[in-house]
Specification:
Elements: H1 8-15, E1 19-25, E2 32-46, E3 50-59, E4 64-65, E5 78-81, E6 86-103, H2 104-115, E7 127-130, H3 133-144, H4 152-170, H5 174-177, H6 187-203, H7 209-216, H8 220-231, H9 235-251, H10 258-264, H11 270-279, H12 285-290
Antiparallel strand pairs: 1-2, 2-6, 3-5, 3-6, 4-6, 5-7
Length: about 290
């Protein structure tokens, strides 16, 4: 999975005077939590490739978003920064923040699998300073945990999933844009196609366009167009990302050799898996397996 430093917002904050106090991965889908301390600096976010949820834990009353100078926040305030967001910030005084970084693909997949929602609706609202008591409560529960405790990983995953669910249900703009969506696969077709992909990946079976189009009850040509309309990716690009996610899950099992992981994930050779990991900025299989806290 990506490391925190692979996220644009993390890198921008690290470039300033902000200090990451704690970091924690939320399972294998690439989401990360970061507990920050920040003070007296300026920063800007220029179209990050991921979503960010920010919860102010302490301070923040003197922080200003220069693009929305009238907005006022403080402890308990939240900001929702979708992928592609732009904003400039003047940070005055000291504060602490909890950040949740969400890659776009896993959140789109969660929208489809958890709520039968079109993946195009898994785009967070762009909101500077808002209140949401359930979200804030979940964030405070996360901060109160000892992230190094033996069982903390499980609890963090539980709370992280609840955070994502709340975001999708209340802050993903689905109801406002649903009537404007055109084309794409039906909910039933999306589920059949995704189930076919996940089953094939788990079994190490080949995935071809004919099989996916058959699952959608469409011709290959129409399936290609409808899949891209729904997911924003071609079937091949989607399968490549899901295959890599499956390989990362297998890499966590140190009983499997690296060559076995590559084979079980559907790569012809370990070198092919290493090439896919490098394209994603994750290094080699051996390096990724050796990273603490993967």
């Amino acid at each position: 999975m990506p490391r925190p430093e692979h996220f644009d917002v993390f890198r921008e904050l690290a470039r300033s005077r902000a200090t990451p106090l704690r970091t924690a991965a939320l399972g294998t889908d690439g989401a990360w939590l970061v507990h920050w301390r920040n003070a007296d600096t300026d920063t800007a976010y220029e179209q990050p490739a991921h979503h960010t949820l920010s919860l102010y834990l302490e301070g923040g009353e003197a922080v200003r978003c220069l693009d929305q100078p009238g907005a006022r926040g403080g402890a308990g305030s939240l900001c929702s920064l979708p992928a592609g967001h732009r904003s400039r910030w003047a940070v005055r005084g000291s504060l602490q923040l909890l950040h949740l970084y969400l890659p776009q693909l896993p959140l789109a997949l969660a929208a489809e699998q958890w709520f039968d929602r079109d993946p195009r609706l898994a785009q967070l609202d762009d909101r500077i300073y808002f209140d949401d008591a359930p979200l804030a409560e979940l964030g405070r529960a996360i901060v109160a945990l000892d992230w190094q405790h033996t069982d903390a990983g499980l609890r963090l995953q539980e709370l992280g999933l609840q955070l994502q669910a709340r975001l999708l249900q209340a802050h993903a703009g689905g109801q406002r844009v649903a009537t404007r969506l055109r084309g794409g696969l039906s909910p039933q077709a999306r589920r059949r196609v995704l189930d076919r992909i996940e089953s094939a990946l788990a079994d190490g079976a080949a995935i071809d366009l004919d099989g996916l189009a058959e699952a959608a009850c469409l011709s290959r040509y129409h399936f290609l167009r409808m899949f891209k309309a729904s997911f924003g990716l071609s079937p091949h690009a989607w399968v490549m990302q899901r295959r890599l996610a499956h390989a990362r899950t297998l890499l966590a099992d140190e009983r499997l050799s690296l060559a076995q992981v590559a084979a079980d994930a559907g790569y012809a050779h370990l070198s092919h898996l290493n090439a896919a990991l490098r394209r994603a900025g994750l290094g080699s299989a051996a390096r990724w397996r050796g990273l603490p806290g993967r």
